Amino acid sequence: MSSLLSANNINKSFSLEDRVIHVLKNISLTIEPAEFVAIMGKSGSGKSTLISILAGLDTPDSGQVFLANEEISNLSEDALALKRQADISFVFQSFHLIPTLTVAENIGFPLKLSGNHSEETVNELLQKVELMHRRNSFPHQLSGGEKQRTAIARALITQPKILFADEPTGNLDEKNAESILQILIDLQQEFNTALVIVTHDPALAKIANRTINIVDGFVV
Ligand SMILES: Nc1ncnc2c1ncn2[C@@H]1O[C@H](COP(=O)(O)OP(=O)(O)O)[C@@H](O)[C@H]1O
Ligand SMILES: [Mg+2]
Q1: Does any ligand 1 atom lie closer than 6 A to the CB of residue 14?
Q2: What is the domain-level CATH number for residue 160?
Q3: Ligand 1 binding pocket includes 15 (Cβ within 6 Å)
């Protein structure tokens, strides 16, 4: 079976005023279809940089990323945007909801973009994340947990092959973090979506199929 996603010898550096920091050092890894992978590592070890590159939000200095055998690390901005619409979703720690749209409109937004809007699909996801009663609320009227459930529903509405989440429970209390985790796992199983989650939560890492540890820009 071929991997869903593979990264070969990824390098990434950032130039600061007086020095260059080499953040990712020859990182190679693979993610299998429907696999649940936790990425762990100290703050500043390069986790966010890594998943941004794996998700096509950022480009490596050298190395390649392949999604279902197609190289995505050399695509143009436009081609990448289409790829993200079709196959890749991302959930951010700070939610990134569109403030002027309601919960239902935020969730349906990716379908609007691709011209496939369906009220029925939006309603299905609203039910799955238990936000039907909040469908007409705006982001500023929601709790942190509700915002993250909205973001997750929006990320899954396109039935992506792979969902990346960067510390999705980092801004939530324990109870909300637990419920977000459960929703992610249920949806992963239902939609067969591969899940790649950056986390500090040992409970989450335990449930994952595999943990990738990043230390000083290396996979260990
Ligand atoms: N756009 C950027 N410009 C300069 N330095 C950056 C940039 N993004 C990240 N870094 C640096 O790269 C290192 C890794 O950052 P990051 O990937 O965010 O780590 P983590 O998510 O593991 O905390 C840090 O030293 C950070 O300051
Ligand atoms: Mg980070």
Answers
A1: yes
A2: 3.40.50.300
A3: no
By residue range, what is the domain housing residue 209?
5-219
pTM beyond cutoff 0.85:
yes
**Tens digit of pLDDT for each residue in 188-201?**
888 899 999 999 88
Q: What pLDDT sits at residue 178? A: 87
Distance CA 102, CA 170 (A): 23
Ligand nearest to the CA of 23: 1
Q: 199: Cβ below 6 Å to ligand 1?
A: no
217 and 24 Cβ atoms separated by less than 8 Å: yes
Q: Give the number of domains in the chain.
A: 1
For the segment 56-98, what is each residue's pLDDT rounded down to a tens digit?
Answer: 999 999 999 999 989 998 888 888 888 888 899 999 989 999 9
Written in H, E and C, the secondary structure of the chain is CCCCEEEEEEEEEEECCCCEEEEEEEEEEEECCCCEEEEECCCCCCHHHHHHHHCCCCCCCEEEEEECCEECCCCCHHHHHHHHHHCEEEECCCCCCCCCCCHHHHHHHHHHHCCCCCHHHHHHHHHHCCCHHHCCCCHHHCCHHHHHHHHHHHHHCCCCCEEEEECCCCCCCHHHHHHHHHHHHHHHHHHCCEEEEECCCHHHHHHCCEEEEEECCEEC
